[in-house]
Structure formats: C-alpha cells, structure tokens
Amino acid sequence: METRAPGYLFQMTKTENVDKQGLFNKELSNLYAIAKQTNHYFNGSDIYFLSEGVQQMLMDYLKLICQTEEMASEALDQMDVNPTNTKDSIVEEITENLRQIADKDLDEPVKALSYQMSINRLMGYHLANMENIALLAKDQKGLQPLLALRKDLSGYKEQLFA
C-alpha cells in the first residue's frame, strides 16, 4: 500500500487519533520520502544548462540528500516504522516540473532560471519538513546529526541565486 504525504494530517485526523509521536513518525517518514524521491530524480538528470556554480551546489545538495535519506531511514528503523512505500506528492509535482523544464526548448538563461526557481521550491519544502521535525523532536534522542543538516540545506538554498 502506498502512502502519500501532503494532506495526510487532515485525512488522519478524520479517521485516527493522532498523538505527537504519530505526527513525528509521519514527518520523519515524509523526510525520508523527500530525500529518496529527490535523490532518484537527480541521479542521471542532465543539468548542462546550469552554471558550473549551481551544478556544484546541486552536487553538494545531492550529498546532503543521501545523508538525509540514510539518517532518516536509520531513525525510522529504530522506531520500527517502515516508510519504504511513502511518496510525497509535492515532491512528485516539483520533480515533474523540473523534468518538463529540462526537456523544454528554451533559451538557456530562461531555462536555468526556471529550473533554479523550482529547485528553490523543493529546497524550501525540504527545509520546512526538517523544521517540523525539529519542533516535534524535542523529546527524541539521537536526531541532532540529522537536524544539523538544516544549516547546510539553508546554505545551499541561499547559494542557489548567488
């Protein structure tokens, strides 16, 4: 069974009693899905139209994504939560938009700017998820290394248009 992340809180609250731990588990599963789907999209993506600086920043972001996926998976395993089929529909929409931009026949500066704007949305969504986890993780142990990645993610987001 596949789980879709956005809107899950509204759907869950109609059918289940949700506690803080349940919210935390869902947000952490969502983070795993964000990382997994983003990693899947960027592996093999042709980003020749981006500047070398943006390409390098994306390579660094991809390393952060891999770390995020691994750390989130380990944390979920420790909590006996299996997120393997979780997909995030917002990430699906953003990566589909990135795919469409990359495939369009546009002037390279316009293509690059459009692509960077969509990456900005993706990073903003990723960062918001990590902030939600930080809010809910006050009682959780061992998540500091994962949450410390927020600072790097914020830095990459700032570099996007520098």
Task: Walk me through this protein's architecture.
It comes from Flavilitoribacter nigricans (strain ATCC 23147 / DSM 23189 / NBRC 102662 / NCIMB 1420 / SS-2) (Lewinella nigricans). This is DUF892 family protein. This protein has 162 residues and is mainly α. It has one domain: Ferritin, core subunit, four-helix bundle (Ferritin, Up-down Bundle). Helix content is 73%, strand content 2%. It has helices at residues 8-15, 20-42, 52-78, 89-103, 108-136, 144-159, and strands spanning 3-4, 86-87. A two-stranded parallel ribbon has the order 1-2. It is elongated, with a radius of gyration of 16 Å. It starts with a strand and ends with a helix.
State the gist of this model:
By secondary structure, the chain is mainly α. Helix content is 73%, strand content 2%.
Number of domains: 1
User: Which second-level CATH architecture applies?
Assistant: Up-down Bundle
* SS strand fraction: under 5%
Compute the CA-based radius of gyration. 16 Å
Count of separate DSSP helical elements: 6
Give the CATH H-level superfamily.
Ferritin, core subunit, four-helix bundle
Q: Which class do the helix and strand fractions yield? A: mainly alpha
Give the low-pLDDT segments.
7-13
Distance between the termini: 42 Å
How much helical structure, as a percent, in the residues?
over 70%
Global mean pLDDT: 88
Main β-sheet description: 2 strands, parallel
CATH topology: Ferritin
* CATH class descriptor name: Mainly Alpha
Enumerate the strands of the largest sheet in spatial order, edge to edge or round the barrel. 1-2
Topology order in helix (H) and strand (E) letters: EHHHEHHH
Shape: elongated
Q: How many beta-strand segments? A: 2
Protein name: DUF892 family protein
